[in-house]
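Feature request disguised as a bug: please show the residue count (232) next to Phosphoribosylformylglycinamidine synthase subunit PurQ in the output. Example input:
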Amino acid sequence: MRIGVITFPGSLDDRDAQRAVRLAGGEPVALWHGSHDLEGVDALILPGGFSYGDYLRCGAIASLSPIMTEVVSAANAGMPVLGICNGFQMLTEAGLLEGGLIRNDHGSFICRDQVLSVENASTAWTAEFEAGQQITIPLKNGEGGFIASDKTLDRLEGEGRVVFRYVDVNPNGSLRDIAGISNERGNVVGLMPHPEHAVEPGFGPDTPAAMRSGVDGLGFFTSVVRQALVEA
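Example output, currently without the count:
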């Protein structure tokens, strides 16, 4: 499976996402924000970072990049798309996901290993998990507070589109402890924590077994790769 990872000016985690794809058995394809060519990929990842310096609003300028025209079309046609942190912000700005992300309620940048509850294990990116499962992956953001109207929040809850929820602590003031959501179809998922930083022993979060041994993030990438194999 060929998975495109889009680099924007200011992207920081694009190479990490490419490595995660490779470890999951997929073929990472580097894509550039200024292109209109998705190069025949089967899925897309919008990585974390500070696209365009986070001017205006995080992800706002990136959402208008040339390649986003193709991303929106591909997503609407059913292609799996994952937005991580700044990529999640881009997806909301582009209208592919509802709600928005604002400054953390405590006003500070936060970096921690975060426990999440998997609320929806039926999306393209979560099929390797089980509903109710708790996973730990790194979180690092300054504007990660998820907001939406009460009506929208109720609809997201009612339709099972809250994909991840923060456990033990709400690190940024996200309403209803929401850490990630999906679109109606389930092919587009956005979340603030970084699964690409928990895919390889020795480089992930600490676990009871050993320091830096956590690989819970790998399930995101194996989910979409194995789904493609099944469909093939």
